[in-house]
Automatic annotation (TrEMBL):
It holds the Pfam family ABC_tran. PANTHER family: DIPEPTIDE TRANSPORT ATP-BINDING PROTEIN DPPD, OLIGOPEPTIDE TRANSPORT ATP-BINDING PROTEIN APPD. This is Peptide ABC transporter substrate-binding protein. Belongs to the ABC transporter superfamily. Residues 5-255 form the ABC transporter domain. InterPro entries: AAA+_ATPase, ABC_Ni/Peptide_Import, ABC_transporter-like_ATP-bd, Oligopep_ABC_C, P-loop_NTPase. The keyword ATP-binding applies. It comes from Oceanibaculum pacificum. One of its GO terms (cellular component) is plasma membrane. Its main location: membrane. PROSITE patterns: ABC_TRANSPORTER_2.
Length: 337
């Protein structure tokens, strides 16, 4: 059975005065129904542009290409704009990072919730309103009917994010893309929103791509993980595989930065990754992580490193992008454990 979403060799290039910015450089992944894929990485690694490219919401100058970009068998790379408009917000929906800039301040919450259902379904205004009230209650907003007449500025950050989740669910999508949906919220509200999204995903059987830089979130909600660095996926696998046996030096470095209760001593400095991310403008050679990696050798500077498949099941998506042997990577991972 084919995956709900299939992405092979996705690239996003943006022309600039100094040359082309290679923002996303040949990434591949799959998402099944009812499965959560977390794409994790530091700011600027290409996570958000990946999600925007799937929704066909890239900036006008950006160029998207892929060997395969299929949603439920539909070739998204070749679909007409009108057909993509029928899919977007209907079968595929997105929850954006900052709800205050994603919600229109000039329209009520009710207007914005009902709009998607009226656009994609043959329903009356009354039915759309009832659906909006039902979903606002489902996402934990009390007095849902009275909220429909309010404007975004009248709601707290947590409530606005719940409205965004309800809006994404209005048409019962098969795939949700959530771009750092809890970044702007305090820790208590973050936990509530994450718990809510997990429960809703199970109830509706949706596939979900969750984009984040928080490995704590990944550990709690992911089925599969794709670690991105400088526009590439440098490691992928199930959440247990990646956390218990990180293969790539970048993943290992990220995990060293996390304080572990009972292991990290008070006052002890946390781990860090020295150096800076390389420029993605113009021609690139070798491993993008070479200038920050403690294991770099000469070939790393000149060889384009593929994503090596590993593990007993070649279809499981376990892989790492490093010239070190699998055994060397395993030995290095023991330092993180």
């Amino acid at each position: 059975m084919a995956a709900l979403l299939e992405v092979e060799n996705l690239r996003v290039d943006i022309p600039l005065g100094a040359g082309d910015l290679h923002a996303v450089r040949g990434i591949s992944f799959q998402v099944d129904r009812g499965e959560t894929l977390c794409i994790v990485g530091e700011s600027g690694c290409g996570k958000s542009l990946t999600s925007l490219s799937l929704m066909d919401l890239l900036p006008p100058k950006a160029r998207r290409s892929a060997d395969r970009l299929a949603f439920d068998g539909i070739d998204l790379a070749k679909v007409a704009p009108s057909a993509m408009s029928d899919i977007r917000g209907n079968r595929m929906a997105m929850i954006f990072q900052e709800p205050m800039t994603s919600l229109n301040p000039a329209y009520t919450i009710g207007n914005q919730l009902e709009e998607a259902l009226l656009r994609h379904r043959n329903v009356s205004g009354r039915e759309a309103r009832e659906r909006a009230v039902h979903l606002l209650e489902k996402v934990g907003i009390t007095g849902a009917a009275s909220r429909l007449g309010q404007y975004p500025h009248q709601l707290s950050g947590g409530l606005r994010q719940r409205v965004m989740i309800a809006m994404a669910l209005m048409c019962g999508p098969e795939l949700i893309l959530a771009d750092e949906p809890t970044t702007a919220l305090d820790v208590t509200i973050q936990a509530q929103i994450l718990h809510l999204m997990i429960e809703l995903q199970k109830e509706f059987g949706m596939g979900m791509i969750l984009i984040t830089h928080d490995l704590g979130i990944v550990a709690r909600v992911a089925d599969k993980v794709a670690v991105m660095y400088a526009g590439q996926i440098v490691e992928s696998g199930t959440v247990n595989e990646v956390f218990e046996n990180p293969m790539h030096p970048y993943t290992q470095g990220l995990l060293r930065c996390i304080p572990v209760p009972g292991k990290t001593r008070r006052g002890e400095p946390l781990g860090s990754i020295p150096g800076i991310v390389p420029s993605l403008i113009g021609e690139m050679k070798g491993c993008a992580f070479a200038n920050r990696c403690p294991y770099t050798f000469e070939a790393c500077l000149t060889t384009d490193v593929p994503l090596f498949e590993t593990g007993s099941n070649p279809n499981a998506g376990r892989g790492y992008r490093c010239l070190l042997s699998e055994q060397q990577c395993i030995e290095n991972a023991k330092e993180v454990a």
